[in-house]
Each structure stands twice: as C-alpha cells, then as structure tokens.
Design goal:
The complex is a heterodimer. By secondary structure, chain A is of the alpha+beta class. Helices cover about 30% and strands about 25% of the residues of chain A. In chain B, a hairpin with a 3-residue loop joins strand 26 and strand 27. The chains are: A alpha+beta, B alpha/beta. Strand 22 of chain A pairs antiparallel with strand 12 of chain B, so a sheet runs across the interface. The complex binds flavin-adenine dinucleotide (FAD).
C-alpha cells in the first residue's frame, strides 16, 4: 500500500473497530480498516474479563457519556452475532452478592431499574438458594441478585471473526499499519500511515487506548480520557469446579472491584483491581496480584495462589474516573465533521453490536450514503476446534488428515491441523496462533509447544525459525543460531 | 498386537515409562505398549546432552541420550510396542484409555493395567507470578535446552536465570560454552535448588554469579526482554525495599521448580498427595485405584534418573503381576511425615516386604537423626530439600513392627551435641 483511496477509514482493529467494519459491510460502502499491530484485538480487547454484561440494571451517572443503552441494546444482538460468526458465547449467569440488608436494598433498586428497562429475568436469592447454586461461595454472603442473562465470550476470537467477516463482505482490512498523521482536506482527510498515504471521506476513530491521540492529530479531540489499568489472573482448569456463575460483590475500596468468572474454556478469571496508571504501562506488579487474590477469596475462600497459571494487565479509557465505571464516547467530533470517535472504557465488548449500529447511523447523518449490500453474508466459519468434536468426528478427521492426530499443545489439546488452519487464517506469530487455537495458553504456558509451534509457523510461512516472533516487531524468540556467538557456522 | 489385548499400557515414554515397560515384559506380561506424545521415545533425556547419568544404575558416566538409548534398545529387544506421537487425552477410573495418534488415529481401549509415567513439567512465568511486562525472550530452562541442544538455536546472548534447579545450572554452563554471557543465577533460598555437583561444575567452574536470597521483582521490555529488576528477600521470602537493582539481559530462563503432571491421574480419579503433587502409592507403586500404577517424576520429582528407572521398574513389575491376576500388597501402614520431613514415598507399606523409602526434608539442617518410627534410626551430617534421602528397610527391621501398627511417623530430629 503506498497510496490508497477509500470512502470510510476505520482506525483500530479492536472489538469496536472490527464491529463497525462488519456493520458497514452490510452496505455498499468502500471501507478500509487499519490496525497497527500485526493481528486483531491486541489492545484492550485482549486484556479482558470476557463478560458479556446486560447493563440493564446499571445506574446512569451522566446521560451523555453513559454506554448503558448501548449495552442493553447489544445483549439481544450478541448471541445471534456470535452464532453467525462461530464465536464462543456461553450464558453462565451472574450472581451479585450482598452481605447485609442495606446491600440487599441496593440490589432491589437495581432489579426495579432492570424491570423498567424491560428485563424481568432478575431474581433475588436468599442464602440457601445461593448456596445451592454455588456451594463454594463465602458463608458471609446473605444472598445475591441473580441475573441469568449474563454470558461469557472470547473477545479476541470474536474480533478476529468480525474482521474476517468484514473482509469477506468487501472491507479492505490491513494490519501492521499505524496512523501517524491526519489532515482535514476539502473532500475529507489525508491520512499518513507507516505504510503510505490514505485519502478518505470519513474517519471512524476506534483506536482504543490511543483514541485521544489519534483525534488530536486533526484537532477532533473534544474530550479527555484517563488511562485506568486493570489486572486479571487466570486459574488452572482443574479448579473450574469452584464456581459456575460470574460472581461479584461491591468493592471494599474504590478501584478494588472483585469479580470471579468462568471463561468459555473452563479456566476461571479473577480480577480486577483498577488504578490510574501511565498509559501503555501494562506491566503487572505484586500489589495488584495480592489485591486480586485477596478480593477473590472474599467471594470464594478456597481460591489459592497455587492455582494461578498466568496474569495480565490491560487498559480501560475512562472519561471521568471519579464518576465510576461506564464512560464512553460514541460521537461525531464537535470540531471536525465526518470524524466519529468511538471509545468505550467498559464494557466495550458487551456494547459492540449496538455501538457499531450507532456509528453507522452517525456516519449516515454526516452524509455517508447507505445502499444495502445484496451480497452481504453474515456467516463465517471458525477453524476446527478439535477438543469439542465427538469421538466419531475425531476418528474421521484424523483418518482424513493425520495432522489432526498430532497434538502439539498438550495442555489444551491443540493439533497440528488446527495450527495450520490458524496460519492460513492469518496468524503469523506465536501469539497469533495462541489466540486463535489456544496453543500455549494452558497450564504449562507454552513450555512444551513453543518450539513446535515455531517450527510449524516457519514451515507454513516459508521463513527461517529465527524470524518467527512472539507478537511482531522486535519480538523474535530465537536471536542466534548455534555456534553463531562463538564465531562458527553450523 | 491389538490394542484390545494390551496387558500393560504405559503412559509416557520417558525413562520412567520405558523402564516400567521393559520390566513388565520381563515379569511376564505379554502385550506391553507405551503411549508417548513426542516424536520419539526417551523423553527429556534426548535433550540432556551433558554427562552424569547412570553413575548408579550402570556404574558408568553416560550422557542423557546414551542412557536413554540403552533403555530404548532394550525395550525393542524385549518386545515392548512403542506408539510415538500419541497423546492420551483421557483415562477413566475403569482404566478406559482414549488417545489421539498421528499414526494410529483415534484410539480407545481398556488394558488390564496401567502405569502412569507422565513425568513432570517446569513452572512457568505465570505460575511463578513474576510481575512486569510480557515480552519475548522468557523460556523455561527445559524449553531453552531443547532449542539449543535439539533445534540448534541460541535464544540470546545475555542471560539471567531465575532459580537454581539442575536444568537451569546446566543451561548456564551450556550457554556460556555457546558464547553467551550468563549475567546471574538468581535463587530465592539461601542455598541452591539442584545438586551440589552442578553448582560446582556448572556455576563455580565458569565464574557464573550466583545471587542467593534474591528474586526477580520485575521484567522490563516491550517486545523483547531488556532487563530484570532483582532484589534481596527477607526471611519470609518477600523482596526488601531499597535492595533492588537492574540487570540488563535479552533472555530470561526459569528453573524454579518442577510439577508432577497429574492431569490424567485426576481424570482417572487417582488420589494425589499434596506434598509430592503426585499419586499416593503403596510399596508396589499401585495408586488409590486398583490396576493403576505410577513411577518416576509423576509420583515425586527425583534428582537422579537412576532412581527414576528403579522406581518405575517396580511399578512395571507390579502392573504386570496385576495384569496376570496377582494380588497386590496386603495391609496398609501409613508413613507419616513428622519433624522436618516434607514427604515420604511410598505413602503406605505392607510391613511384610523389604522396601526403599524416598524422602525429602523441608529445610536444610546440620547434625540430624532420621528416625523411621522405632524401627530404624540413622545419623546424618546434613540434609537439604534438594537432595533426596533414600533408606532401605530390611525384613529384620520390619519385624520390629508391632502387630496392628497402622502408622509410622518419620522424623528428622536434631542430634544432641556431645
Ligand atoms: C482488565 C479489563 C477487563 C475488562 N473486562 C471486560 C468485560 O468483562 N466485558 C466487557 O465488555 N468489557 C471489558 N473490558 C473493556 C473492554 O476490553 C474494552 O471496552 C474494549 O476492548 C475496547 O475495545 P476497543 O476496540 O475500543 O479498543 P482496543 O481493543 O484497544 O482496540 C484499539 C485498536 O486500535 C489500534 N490502534 C491504536 N492506535 C492506532 C493507530 N494510530 N493506527 C492504527 N491502529 C491503532 C490498537 O492497536 C488496537 O488494536 C475490560 C477491560 C479491561 C482492561
């Protein structure tokens, strides 16, 4: 790409940018999505609790900035969308614990709020019914608000699916390309990227953590966001029996939110202590780990540090940290026409389907012509998921292609066949393979499979093993060949 | 051989599995099969190209591949069937095995007995909970060993190693010989985690700095690791503020503990011992489930392969006897860990037959006396968690057991100074 012309340029391949791209592909619009990383969903979307919230019971702090409507409008769209795209979706239900009467009263109000929004499935559980549902929950809890509608998904796989489906339906999807400058011009915008220039008529800025920086390139930054860092720890699948619902309680201290949730793969997540932090500094530290563990034990006392197999930190961009959780921007810039800013600190995954529709509406208001794309195909096929096949299906598959009989990742039982499919789908790095197939995500954290996945990547991409990276750029895994450091050549 | 006719199925084709399979054949089991997920039999020994193997078993100083080769050859000679690239995905309490295999397809069969020999895995960065960024260039020592010795790559040229396990120390020497610089080996404890001979031959002989009572408090670098922060730890192993310093590196190796791999054992309903992380076994190496036996690092982490071979031969022999209709050990006397004892394997004995006990202590101590109930007592100059204690109980000693004894306490007592 050195010069490119497009009608709509979407900046950012997170869950929001890709959802917008797919939504636009329902229309005959010439759209381009660009993402600076070599793969999709590696921003906030990757560092996530994976919960699909309803938002129906949330209090609105400030109407203008609040994503709740987008969240509750998204809920009925989410499951069919995941089905069309063969992305994971599992309705686990939610339990919001209370420990005394005033806690109970607070949840009664929430329930009333949800009902006023047409969601009537909430139930108040007393201690005994709670215990029947979740025997390992703390004895301190006197009851819970039960919401059976809450689900979990895999945000990165969903994002990859959205990007793929957008591409199938005609969107020009480009990775490894960063927007560096934007100038408003007569007909729209001149955008300078790391790979060349793009001229476009409309911009959707879904740059996640960089939403304000990208907007500032063209003075479309009529907002201020604060980077808040959240932390999540992953527990071994062998303790997945501890809890089967997403469980949380009101935080003991600001920023100490305590949630434990099942994931679509059987691991539990605990999180998320949150704190204002230097943007991009997603290093974990001891303090977060200790807070997360302490808070999780308040919900399920049996959780042990020993069961943690990994942890990560990620960023949420909040408009106003003091106001609380739910801060969002889904607006046309007040200073620059035809420039739409999209950012949802939390819960951007849950709000993605309705947000994408809203953005398309905003673009149309700015003058984008929306003619239906008769060829739009909402379906996308996921790659094989070997572990979830029946015995008979496994037998047949291996008989037809022996690569499915070769287990490469022992912890998650990922086969060579699946890894090859992932590479064909666009994975070019170890992390790319990991997020698509889970190879390396299990309890040994790639100790066993990394050398084998490296070999398969090199073979399939036709490049030497030393050039294989963990996540693109300078993240090569193997820096030298044998004997290279002692002057010899093998 | 049809899988339906298997007498003994061995899960894992490392030194433990091969030794068990050979012994099972020698004991008289007809059809013995090893299921191994890797490309070939031999397990991790093939990447351990250093020497020091077999000093006890063969009275010879062999390299890992040489040691493995002798067993693999013998397995072929005795008619053991090996299925490489075959991953066992499930074992039921009724001993039904399911597996996927590149060569054989999808397998499901029920052998007369099973030997668990899955070995152990290294603790990952996530399990160790090392804070910081998540760049490339962080490997467990065993993964790095495979890259260097089998695949022909050097991960980087300035290395820090966390933990002083044997593989870590051996890789410190190996990478130094390959022209890399090992900036430090960082160990939380006041003493090394592996064998003394490795401390001397791998670290001291190559002037590799060893930082005892230190840990890594942060990993730096966005794409490739650039440095680590190390700090001294206090008695409760917490970093002491103000003692931090930064060590530049392009690679971090982790050699801070091994975990027996017992996910399949759990599926089969086998009871595990919290102290070893492996199945509780009797003196025949039968687990809590009849017909399922276990040997080697899956039971408890050994420091020497020689002991792995011996222990697994016992498991293989018992599995064969069980497959042929023999009765297991009669009567169960529990061995209980007392003062400064972390674990004892086997966890139960019959009291009828001579038996070897393997033990580890919790803390390093000098001038101690090891007491096995009132049947044996032995003075020891020094004990360390990293060096396994091995004690043989002869029939004469076991005769001292009172009728109806149900528990024997093992203590490591301080010796009175004279
Ligand atoms: C710890 C934690 C837990 C969370 N839990 C949940 C949850 O359970 N449920 C839920 O719904 N939400 C959750 N969230 C929130 C959710 O992750 C975010 O709302 C959502 O991922 C935001 O998506 P996005 O597409 O806006 O951002 P991102 O995923 O960050 O996408 C932005 C993309 O833009 C790219 N980009 C940036 N600058 C440029 C440029 N100049 N040129 C090109 N590309 C660029 C980035 O590389 C990135 O891929 C959580 C967040 C955190 C941090």
């Amino acid at each position: 790409m050195s010069e490119l012309k497009t009608e709509v340029l979407i900046i950012g391949g997170g869950v929001l940018g890709t959802a917008v791209a797919r939504e636009l592909s329902r229309y005959k619009v010439d759209a381009t999505l660009i993402e600076k990383e070599v793969d999709f969903g590696w921003g906030s979307t990757k560092a996530n609790m994976c919960i699909v919230c309803q938002g129906a019971d949330h209090q609105e702090f400030s109407k203008e900035y609040h994503p709740s409507p987008l969240v509750w409008q998204s809920m009925p769209l989410m499951e069919p969308m995941c089905q069309e795209l063969e992305a994971p979706f599992n309705r686990v239900g939610e339990l919001a614990l209370f420990f005394n009467n005033s806690g109970k009263e607070k949840y009664e109000k929430m329930m009333a709020r949800a009902e006023s929004r047409g969601i009537t499935t909430h139930q108040l559980l007393d201690r005994d019914s709670l215990r029947r549902l979740e025997p390992n929950i703390t004895r301190e809890a006197t009851g819970a608000l039960y919401d059976p509608g809450i689900a979990v998904t895999d945000p990165v796989r969903l994002t990859i699916a959205l990007a793929e489906n957008a591409r199938q339906n005609g969107v020009n999807v480009i990775t490894g390309t960063e927007v560096q400058d934007i100038k408003a011009s007569a007909g729209g915008f001149e955008v300078k990227t790391s790979q060349g220039n793009i001229s476009c008529e409309f911009v959707v800025n879904a740059a996640g953590m960089a939403v304000d920086k990208v907007a500032a390139l063209v003075n479309a930054d009529d907002f201020v966001v604060f980077p808040i860092r959240g932390y999540v720890a992953i527990l071994d699948k062998k303790v997945s029996d501890l809890v089967s619902h997403e469980v949380h309680a009101s935080p003991e201290a600001p920023g100490e939110s305590n949630i434990i949730t099942p994931t679509v793969y059987g691991n539990l997540f605990i999180g998320t202590p949150m704190k204002l932090a230097r943007r991009g500094d997603d290093a974990t530290n001891r303090e977060m780990a200790e807070v997360a563990l302490r808070n999780a034990r308040r919900l399920i006392p049996d959780i042990s540090e020993k069961d943690i197999i990994n942890s990560f930190a990620g960023f949420l961009m909040f408009r106003n940290w003091e106001l609380g959780w739910h801060e969002c921007i889904v607006n046309t810039s007040s200073t620059v026409p035809r420039f739409v800013n999209v950012s949802i600190g939390f819960p951007g995954v849950s709000a993605a389907p309705a947000t994408a529709r809203e953005v398309v509406k905003l673009l149309s208001r700015e003058g984008l012509k929306l003619r239906e794309n008769p060829g739009f195909n909402p379906y996308r096929k996921a790659i094989t998921d070997f572990t979830n096949l029946t015995d008979e299906e496994k037998r047949k598959l291996i008989a037809s292609d022996s690569r499915y009989g070769h287990v490469v990742c022992r912890c998650e039982t990922v086969t060579e066949g699946e890894i090859v499919e992932a590479i064909k789908q666009g994975a070019a790095t170890l992390d790319g393979v990991k997020f698509r197939t889970r190879a390396g995500m299990g309890r040994c954290q790639s100790g066993f499979c990394s050398s084998r996945v490296t070999g398969i990547l090199a073979r399939e991409l036709g490049i030497p093993e030393e050039e294989i990276t963990k996540k693109g750029g300078e993240s090569r895994q193997l820096l030298y060949k044998s004997k290279e450091l002692i002057g010899g050549r093998e | 051989m049809k899988l339906q006719d298997v007498d003994v199925a061995v899960i894992g084709g490392g030194p433990a599995g091969i030794a068990a399979a050979i012994k099972a054949r020698e004991t008289g089991a007809q059809n013995v099969v090893i299921l191994e997920r890797a490309e070939k039999m031999g397990g991790l020994l093939y990447q351990c190209i250093h020497n020091g193997f077999g000093l006890f078993y063969f009275n010879e100083d062999l390299t890992g591949p040489e040691y493995a080769h002798r067993f693999v050859e013998k397995a072929m000679d005795t008619g053991v069937k090996g299925l490489p690239e075959t991953m066992v995905t499930g074992i039921s309490p009724e001993r039904q095995i399911t597996a996927v295999s590149k060569g054989e397809g999808y397998l499901s069969f029920r052998p007369a007995s099973i030997v668990l020999a899955m070995g152990c895995r290294e603790k990952s960065r996530g399990a160790l909970g090392i804070p910081g960024t998540r760049p490339a260039g962080i490997f467990t020592a065993g993964t790095a060993q495979r890259f260097v010795n089998v695949e022909g790559f050097i991960p980087g040229k300035r290395i820090v190693i966390l933990g002083s396990g044997d593989i870590g120390m051996i890789m410190a020497r190996r990478l130094t010989l390959e022209g890399a610089e090992v900036a430090a080996v960082v160990e939380m404890l006041p003493y090394i985690g592996g064998l003394i001979r490795n401390e001397v031959q791998c670290l001291h002989d190559f002037d590799i700095p060893l930082l005892l009572e230190h840990t890594i408090t942060r990993i730096h670098g966005e794409q490739r690791i650039e440095a680590v922060t190390v700090a001294r730890v206090d008695d409760s192993k917490r970093p002491i503020a103000g003692t931090e310093r930064r060590i530049e590196c392009d690679t971090l190796l982790l050699s801070a503990g091994l975990i027996p791999e017992n996910e399949l054992s759990l599926m089969a309903g086998v009871e595990l011992d919290a102290a070893t992380g492996g199945p509780t076994v009797d003196e025949t190496r039968q687990t809590s489930i009849s017909g399922i036996f276990a040997g080697g690092n899956v039971v408890h982490v050994h420091d020497l392969v020689d002991n792995v071979s011996w222990e697994s031969e016992l498991a293989g022999e018992s599995a064969a006897r069980s497959a042929m209709g023999g009765k297991g050990a009669q009567g169960k006397i529990k061995l209980k860990a007392g003062r400064n004892i972390r674990y004892i394997v086997p966890q139960t004995i019959s009291g009828q037959n001579k038996v070897t006990l393997y033990m580890r202590v919790n803390d390093m101590e000098e001038g101690v006396r090891l007491k096995i109930g009132n049947i044996m007592s032995k003075g020891l100059r020094v004990v360390k968690p990293s060096e396994m204690l091995k004690v043989e109980l002869a029939p004469e000693q076991l005769e001292k057991l009172k009728e109806g004894t149900s528990e024997i306490i093992v203590d490591c007592e301080r010796r009175e100074r004279k």
